[in-house]
Hints:
Elements: E1 3-7, H1 18-27, E2 32-35, H2 44-49, E3 56-67, E4 70-77, H3 84-95, H4 97-110, H5 117-124, H6 131-140, H7 171-180, E5 184-187, H8 201-210, E6 214-218, H9 224-237, E7 240-243, H10 263-272, E8 279-280
Parallel strand pairs: 1-2, 2-3, 5-6, 6-7
Antiparallel strand pairs: 3-4, 3-8, 4-5
Helix pairs in contact: 5-6
Amino acid sequence: MRIDLHCHSTASDGTDTPAELVRNAAAAGLDVVALTDHDTTRGYGEAIAALPEGLTLVTGAELSCRIDGVSMHLLAYLFDPEEPALLAERELVRDDRVPRARGMVAKLNALGVPVTWEQVARIAGDGSVGRPHVATALVELGVVPTVSEAFTADWLADGGRAYVEKHETDPFEAIRLVKGAGGVTVFAHPAASKRGRTVPESAIAAMAEAGLDGIEVDHMDHDEETRDRLRGLAKDLGLLVTGSSDYHGSRKTVELGAYTTDPEVYGEITRRATGAFPVPGAGGA
């Protein structure tokens, strides 16, 4: 089985629609794909309706969190999307995205970059607006050559010249909320240092004590040495180890299935989840 547990669609900051995502996942030879848009579940219906036969969909979300001033992302799988407490927190985070993006536009303007809110809104479309949309605007304007190169201290990285904070959930609260909604939690790309400051291992240990289920180890932003270190940490803390592409369509160079999760780990994730179940494809439209 080939299992990719971290993918984005146009419901947040990917370039594939949810329907395109699942069709492309099947074409890439995946058996299981997770839809984990940022702080939203809006893509679920379209993805399920288009799900090809032979492909299983894991519903999820990537939650925006912050601990001790450091931003981090928590992958939440197979939770009840209508559970009131988690839904309210997701909406709070999502609603703060527009004023945050407007703030980044204002900072960029002050730096002499002629980006406009209308440009960013066009790029975001119906998606949950975020930094990658602002980064894409910078690429369109020729300020940077790629989206990744917008995530530096000069521009949009944490603490960068055009960075603006947004509401982010305390990860211990997020773990509690996801558990309360029957879901499973995995710390996304925990050592992606090129994105900015990373969470110390002591904090990961504390999250494990609080119920964190796993950490994403095999990821494009982790080199081999980092992956080996994280595997050792996961073993010490009794955490599951996942691998995922963090696919964003054409917004990033990584391909679907570039990194995958062991079937036994996937089985354990589904065993622990009580809020929702994986959806088997029945030959969608």
